[in-house]
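quick one, 117 residues, struct below
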Amino acid sequence: MARKIIIIEDDPDTLDIMSYILNEEGYETITAGNSKPLEEVNVHQPMLILLDNRLTDGSGGDFCKKFKKNPETMHFPVVLVSANMGLETIASECNADGYLKKPFDIADLIELVKRFR
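---
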């Protein structure tokens, strides 16, 4: 699978920072402030999807749950990234492949991504 990562984050500053860090690490990033890239995941074939839980067009946990129930998309790893209380539980309930609590350390983001290579 390509070294491509989809980052879905509604905060533009956080989105820019995550994209910059991962681009510097050699990953190609596809970024969005809403769930639109999830509709095109089979075209992009990402190695990982970093998904904020609070989006302008819905809940990342709800998107993840639908995504993981779909046989065509369930194999793509999804990591929830959020400051929500109970993020571990939300990630577990939607069958996410992991989670990253905000605010996060840059080293933690890089280490997390490396686990999905």
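The first helix runs from residue 12 to 24.
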